[in-house]
Request: fold
Amino acid sequence: MVKNNFDILRILLAVLVFYFHIGIETQNEYLMYVPGGLAVHCFFVISGYLIVKSYLKRKHLPTYVKSRFLRIYPLYFIVITTAFIFGYCHYSDSFIDYLSNGAGKYLASNYLLVNFLQPTLPGLFENNFQPFVNASLWTIKIEVMFYVCVPIIYGVLNKKLDNKKLTVLLGLASVCCFYTVQYLIKHHEVPASINRQLPSMLVFFMLGAYWNFAEPKFLKAWHLLILLPVVLFLQNWFVIYAFAVSFIVYVIVFKLKLITISKRIGDISYGIYIWHFPILQTLIMYGFFKNIYQGAAIATVLVFSFAMLSWHFIESKLVARH
Reply:
């Protein structure tokens, strides 16, 4: 692969989501404007490119499944289990009561990637702005759903259409789905959260996947000056916004000066993303965010520490196996 800025961009995006959540959970009027939603959409574009590239390179389903499982699930499992144990340490009644009062459902639903069925633990974070244990996990489900789609799209459906046309067709179908759901939200009281799921979000993955077949080489570094205002102020223009998001990712990754991450730090983006919310909630619960600067500083040190430990002692060991 050509030298690129994927690693530094993913870390930056994870940090943006982290600080956006600080803003939401502390109701800080400035940090609430951090573009956390944009960061998530950029993650989807990156996944679309990299996961499709990985699958097309190997096209061996067992290897693909193993690599995706080892990259995502072990650390996910550890984070869920750690929260479960931490919650019990803060629960006043018996373990059986803890399980029957929602903790058992939390464990089962989160292990199965359906966090929305039980996003809270009994007695934990109840006095915080939101009682959720880890509000970041909704995107993991979407990522995994896309992982499942890739072999179907590029191993089965592409027998009828070539990869390039198929990618375009699915992107268009996703856009149509988004506007259909948007209509239902507006006129038939359908929950707005549905449009933050697949297939509406598939367009971001497909825009990233398309680079495997036709790269937007016309883009230059200075185009960021145009693209950034577009994604920040034209979010209601969904198609324009989606293309602008994908172009921003492409420019940063392939057109800007290479920024390398030290091996001492490692690929810590997933660790930052998956650890930050429960750490943030814990610090809020213990009162560390009575001073926003103190809380943010402590949270940053802890989140980066957990992410680096996770990478060096868990993730990197598993990545080496596939």
About this structure: The chain has a mean pLDDT of 95.
